[in-house]
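ok so i was messing around last nite and threw this chain in just to see what happens. nothing serious, just curious
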Amino acid sequence: MVEGVMAAESSYEHWGLLHRLQRVLEVLDTAEAAGAAGMAFMFTWLRFSSNKLLDWQRCFSYQPRDVTWAQQQVVERFAEKARSAADPAVRMYSRMALSKMSRGGGNGDEIRMGILNIMRDHGIKEGNRGGLDEPFLEQWHQKIHQCSSPEDFIIAEAYLAYLHSANHDDWWRVLEKNGISKEHMESWEQPITALPMHLPQLIQAIQHYHWVLKTCHAGAELDTALTCAQGFVDPDLRWHLYDLLANRNAWWAPGKTLELRRRLKPYWQAPGSSRDLLLLDIALESWLRMLIERQDKRELSGDDLVELMGLVLGNAALTGDSDELQLVCAQWEAVRANPDRWSRAWCLAASAALARVTLALSAFADGLCGLVQPYAELFGLRCGIPASHILNFSEEVVRDQALFVGSLLAAELEPRLREAAGASSWQVVSQVPNATGEVVLLPNLLGVQGVAFDKPMVVLAQTLGGMEDIPDGVVALLTRSSTDVLSHVAIRARTQGVLLAGCSDEEEWKHLVELVGQKVSLSVASSGDVIAAPADPSDSAATASPKALNPAEPCSSPAASRELRGSTWRGLAQQQGSAFIKVLQESAFHPEFVGAKACNLAKLRSKLPEWILVPRSVALPFGTFEAVLADSENAEVAAELAQIERQLAAAAGAASSNGS
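result:
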């Protein structure tokens, strides 16, 4: 199937959009039978088509009605699979593909891709890609990428006024007329501080982009979807849907949108239901995501972040059929409904729930990237698509999903919960068993983009923006910034096997800075703390005994020390025999008597609230085995074991003398 599509897209003399839609109808069932991999291919294919990166007309002409008919057939087939396919992955990718088609949901992607395409098509520098350096467009692009809002429509209007006149007074006139000041733009989470350059060749492209922004932020897609679907819902639901449209930017709109999606779900899931119902649900999902995404997260209270996270997870749970997502949503709802907010016990529970949320987000993003990126690279290779459209393809797909905004909320909420709970000051985004390298301090990663280190490096970056690449040779990246788990740098860290973590404690960060120039070994403790220890300079893989940045408590004393203490008990046990044997209650646990697992369970119980249960236990102390072996009943077994030990010792000595 894949090879047939590639051959047609890359080499057929007569090919275009109509042929592509007809081929989609031919192979869709085959793709469904292949499961997630097959449907991920279909989605990737249609996304490239909707972005006009595949030919829409190649030596062939056709009537618009033919394309319209073919589009309707494709949309109806995908809608049916999104409703009733047995495989949840097939349902998910079918729904994602529908957002790329002509009836509904496309302008949200045009906002994200439109500014990128303008920059790429006109040779303007974007991130690490070379070209004309236009700081305003780069800043606006970053703002739209992270938080597109109604201000973008005004910015586009002001930009057009300036491009026509080459006078920055017109730029400021349009902005100030609509209530946007210089100070306001500089205060945004993704600030705009640069003035635009005069590039009149962009006028036509910006005019189209202005239209895209205007229609999307005016809710044109949502209006169209409701107009098409209004005859398929009951009068009460129809009234509430139109009430939402009339008040789409009200403070209560996010909660209302989620409620209406819940009421709409039985309609679009019904066998044989109109595709317009599903397209309306997709439009509502997109609108809710946009309402939350455009919030300035730094200005929100902790309670607001908790409530918005509930809306994000509820929005995603209505869309997907993942058991894990349903459990995560239920766990967060239990935390959200608990009235004892911001107590230490509540913060610990919320931190645990948020950790599960971020794990679910990471797993979702990594799974999505793992399926679609290889197909994107194949299309790029076979169809000559520019590398600028391939490099971050899968990450752009992730950012289109309803769950993406959850990662933005988590990045803001997680340090607040840790601080309120007195928990670990580390946010671990990408974990590896061990990372050993030389420590270097950088203000950020921008100055080393494209650099390849010739030896393993542990980079301390004061700030991270999220869109940076991780240079070759970096084995660990530690930062003072909170990091979005679905950001470009986070996805790359997990893909490249790089330790990525953020530190919110000033003293711990100072301790790390003191290690600059030294070779260290890093790992992550079960508590979430990053553990640092000097590494053997002669061995790049050295893993010296780690030293926690937060000094450990007595129950986590080193194994070597515990072994020394245990040897004392073993000698005493051999002398006393069965008189030594005893069972220790948890209150008597101590590193001199029992192992780390028993000690840590006892310590954990003292740290957690009563409603979090820890298994109760008793323990046999060090030396119990020796005491049992010393009993007269086991004399023969003890003698046999002693003989085996002597034989093993002799064999080891012989091997050593032979140089083996």
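not much to say yet. DSSP finds 26 helices and ten strands in the chain.
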